[in-house]
């Protein structure tokens, strides 16, 4: 299976998935750390994550798949939501809590 198809399968398999640098316990950049903190503050307790630092090919191809150049990248129900700035904006607007609950991740 081509890598783009594998990415598509991952974003379809999980209601909510965050492609990030590091892990929620050990984020490897400030943006990934802030994204995880915002998602946890919104009640996401079953967050599926992928450490893009473990797979150079995934790290290179995910921006092509999503048409989003930076990490982290949050997908909900197969749709790109955005990176840490958008995640934080959604949290501050009170929308992230609803999105997390609707994704069944709370």
UniProtKB/TrEMBL annotation:
Residues 17-81 form the Glutaredoxin domain. Transmembrane segments: none annotated. [2Fe-2S] cluster binds at residue 29. GO terms for molecular function: 2 iron, 2 sulfur cluster binding; disulfide oxidoreductase activity; metal ion binding. InterPro entries: Glutaredoxin, GRX_PICOT-like, Monothiol_GRX, Monothiol_GRX-rel, Thioredoxin-like_sf. Signal peptide: none annotated. Keywords: 2Fe-2S, Iron, Iron-sulfur, Metal-binding, Redox-active center. Belongs to the glutaredoxin family. Monothiol subfamily. NCBIfam families: Grx4 family monothiol glutaredoxin. PANTHER family: GLUTAREDOXIN FAMILY MEMBER (PTHR10293), MONOTHIOL GLUTAREDOXIN-S14, CHLOROPLASTIC (PTHR10293:SF72). This is Glutaredoxin. It comes from Stenotrophomonas ginsengisoli.
């Amino acid at each position: 299976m081509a890598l783009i198809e594998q990415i598509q399968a991952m974003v379809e398999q999980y209601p909510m998935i965050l492609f990030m640098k590091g892990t929620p316990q050990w984020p490897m950049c400030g943006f990934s750390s802030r994204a995880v903190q915002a998602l946890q503050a919104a009640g996401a307790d079953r967050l599926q994550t992928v450490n893009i630092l473990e797979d150079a090919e995934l790290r290179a191809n995910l921006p092509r798949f999503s048409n989003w150049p930076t990490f982290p990248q949050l997908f909900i129900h197969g749709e790109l939501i955005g990176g840490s700035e958008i995640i934080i904006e959604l949290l501050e607007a009170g929308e992230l809590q609803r999105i997390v609950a609707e994704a069944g991740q709370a």
